[in-house]
Amino acid sequence: MSLVRKRSVTIRGHRTSYSLEEPFFDDLVSIATQRGLTLATLVAEIDENRPREANLSSALRLYVLEWAKGGGNRAE
């Protein structure tokens, strides 16, 4: 079982935090690398596109899941 770890990030000048299990975080870092983005840029992109009723942590998990379902070769 993977423990949830809280992390902080600055998005558009606003400091916020999210909590992710290590496997989700590792995949998020990998996706950012594959897309040629910093982790902060990817998190900001996901935050900008998430429904307002969804929290950031959930949006990040769903993004990783969707990426995995798409084979990880999406052009964005």
Mean pLDDT over the residues: 90
Q: Which spans have pLDDT < 50 for at least 5 consecutive residues? A: none
Helix content: 40-55%
Distance between the termini: 32 Å
Strand order of the largest sheet: 1-2
Total beta strands: 2
- Number of H/I helices: 3
Largest sheet: 2 strands, antiparallel
How many domains, as an integer? 1
- Output the structural class: alpha+beta
Q: What shape does the CA trace take?
A: globular
- Rg (C-alpha, Å): 12 Å
What string, H for helix and E for strand, traces the elements in order?
A: EEHHH
Q: Tell me the fraction of residues in β-strands, as a range.
A: 15-25%
Protein name: Aryl-sulfate sulfotransferase
Domain Ribbon-helix-helix: 5-67
Keywords: Transferase
GO molecular function, one term: transferase activity
Give a written overview of the molecule:
Keywords: Transferase. One of its GO terms (molecular function) is transferase activity. This is Aryl-sulfate sulfotransferase. The protein is built from three helices and two strands. With 76 residues, the chain is of the alpha+beta class. The chain has one domain. A two-stranded antiparallel sheet has the order 1-2.
